[in-house]
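Example 508, ligand 3-methyl-2-oxobutanoic acid.
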Amino acid sequence: MSEPRKITIFDTTLRDGEQSPGCSMNLTEKLELAQALIDLGVDVMEAGFPIASPGDFEAVREISSTMKGTTFCGLARCSDKDIDRAWEALKHAERSRIHVFLATSAIHREFKLKMTREQIISRAVEGVTRAHNYCDDIEFSPEDAARTEHDFLCEVVEAAIAAGASTINIPDTVGYATPQQMGETISMLFNRVPNIDRAVISIHCHNDLGLAVANSLAAVQNGAGQIECTVNGIGERAGNCSLEEVVMAMKTRQDFYNLETNINTQRLVPTSRLLTSITGMNVQRNKAIVGQNAFAHEAGIHQDGMLKERTTYEIMRPEDVGLSKTDLVLGKHSGRAALGDRARELGYHLTGEQLQEVFEEFKKLADKKKEIYDGDIHALIQARIHGGGESEHGWSLVAFDVKSTSGKTPVCKLTLSRDGKEFTEEVAEGDGPIDAAFWAVEKITGLEITCKDYQVRSATLGRDAIGEVLIEVEYQGKVFRGRGTSTDTVESTIQAILDAVNRIENRS
Ligand code: KIV
Ligand code: ZN
């Protein structure tokens, strides 16, 4: 067999992933994830869509000017304002790419853009040319390419390459393609576009029919050299091509695909867990590669086979995706250094000050709980670093007293503090202790919020496990999420509400 061909992994977790509901991240969270993506080994990181909001601009600017080790990319429509803004955000990066896009399918041309084919071509050429005046590395995406007429797609791609695009991305924007069709489209472009050898062909699939990974693999089998994907497959609607799945498919079946990537696969699970912790969006238990059950063998016949020879029922080794064999790690006698090491292995880059804060909480927890698992450590770090109801000038919990008696209205007495001042209220309202806690927080903070989703889960095994509460609240038509962790679920609920309230008050 010839040498494997290298596939470029273009990660768009911070752009296409982040723009999906419930996945928005603040700057600190984006910086943390960006570092984890660099450690994972992504070749290109799409850090955001700079024109979309001041927050997006700032994130692209901060990430690309302070970090190294990958190519940083910013998205722009084919308009002067978008492209100038993207460059403004990217100009200090060591390696940068501007990604310009314009829809090409008949549906988009007629109903969304109201533009003719000729107008689309000249707008695409103008966009690529302007971006190319700023930087050499230009990617062009004909949005909804998978539903674009082949003749026209070839014309647009040829014109974009001639104008200076070095990567041509083929998006299946609405997740409509099938693997065979996607493979044929890529092969058709190689056969019909005369200057195709001057660009890398990329693939960008959405997962509406559950085919994003299969479609991406079909594209690379037919010559595409770059895959656009997201950690945990997060993204609009049913999401994008899942990075961990597509990477492990190429690695595990290298005998078939003869392809390889620069991804350090042992960072896959930690990066997935980090993203889950940041967004509060859990992956399904049976999700390939990173789901809780992905390497669990329940059936007796399978367990028996595994004991005799692992490969009877296992095609990948858990260690290769970064799953530790046992997650029982620390206890009362573990020191700060051991906690720091474990945190690093789990994908966190804590500053000395953050580690100290987490360590203090760790010691308190170790007094209540003998065995500290990875899940507990995730929960502790998330609570201290990503909110958990506290921020420098935000509300924090001082004390609570909640009474819930059958047949009686629940009562919640709550004391919160903010900027050194304490506020106490007692309410007898609601249909249970959680509702009463909401009422009490509303009364003190003066914010009227609607609870859209409330989830409690235990971070680890056992009755003494940390209870993690994730909530989504609506305030003035916008959704905010909050997280709280404690061995007491009422306390984690109040923390989660305060986390959401602090996010509301700090919104940019
Ligand atoms: O799905 C899509 O078409 C996109 C483009 C901007 C590449 O995300
Ligand atoms: Zn997309």
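Summary: The chain has four domains: 5-279, 295-324, 328-385, 396-505.
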